Fold this protein.
Amino acid sequence: MNTPLLLTREPATEAQSLADYRKEGGYAGFSSLDQVSPAQILEELEASKLRGRGGAAFPAARKWKLAQQAEATVKYTVANGGEHEPGSHKDRHLVQYYPHRVLEGMLWCGYATGAKVGYLYLIEDMAAPIAAAERAIEEATEAGLLCTALGNGFEFEIKIHRAPTTYVAGEETAALDSIEGGPGKPREKPPYPGEAGLFGQPTTVNNVETLAHVAWIRHHGAPAFAAIGTEESTGTMLFTLGKEVNRPGVYEMPFGTTYRQLLEDCGGGVRGEKAVRAVLPALSCRFLSADQLDTPIAYETMKSLGTSPGCGGVHVIVEGQDVMEKVASIADFFMKEQCGQCPPCRMETNQFAHILKGVRDGKRGDFSGQLEKIARFTAGKGRCSLIEMAAAPVLSAAEVFRSDFEACATEAAEPE
């Protein structure tokens, strides 16, 4: 399957207009909204097996059902585009060039769950995506798709919220905190957003890519979507490839594709034809070694390896690269981006950075054992999953690049 579901105009140079989006079937379902019930939308979503594309891979239908079944007169939806992970650019790409796909997904979510207001959550420095979203909202409003009754008494309003430029502000409860006027820090769960989210009301938070897929499912049907990919990982996923490849950019591929295919078919191979030593599916995941490049990209196959596709922001480690610098930079990122609320998280991220600095400085010791001991102690003790996210790349690096870790100590110990 090479026909894209979302990125239908690549290379895209400007935002897709409402007129062009409608030529692809966009918003068509809202002309006959009286013929489909919220329950039917939810059944279709469940049949599609769509899972969240923000990294957690939570089944979208389960989130929607939680909010749909909640008894409340006011409900909300949030399209989370708070993309602040190094190496990931797919959310801003989608909003900047395909804003109506995201808006339509928000509309369907609002209709299915009973929400009347949606927030498009974008980082405040995303100037181009914000401008594209503002224009798309204007077009949709002028066309009578927003702030107007569309059938069954449904009307929906979309607002843009500019989020702080911090990593944790992309976590779903942190997004709610920011929209409410807070600093954008994670909250304790439960309650979950579907029960008591924005302003204490049932709220459905989905990644913008997830919602864009919802729009496609409504156009083409759940069976067509479920037929793409694998049994447990249906549809396509957006991946960001960086400067390590000849053709950096955002690409869409079906689940079941391998990382070797992604690098070669999409990225045009590694620059300088250097050998690939490992791949990091996303910054918060475990490394895959070179002999695992042919593993199909799917939640079920990667789970068996202790990792996941994450948000699709792919990092490639090539022959000759300073591995220790890369791993240390990842640890430093999480240390600086943790929000400071949870002592275990502060302790873990600081200790990881400290240990890796020691390794780079040539200190000897059981670095792997130290890292694992800290990770075991802190596991599951934070308000969000940053503790696990920070541990995954560091612990796996100590396994995949053990010779590099040991070489630092050996070289430093040798007399000049």
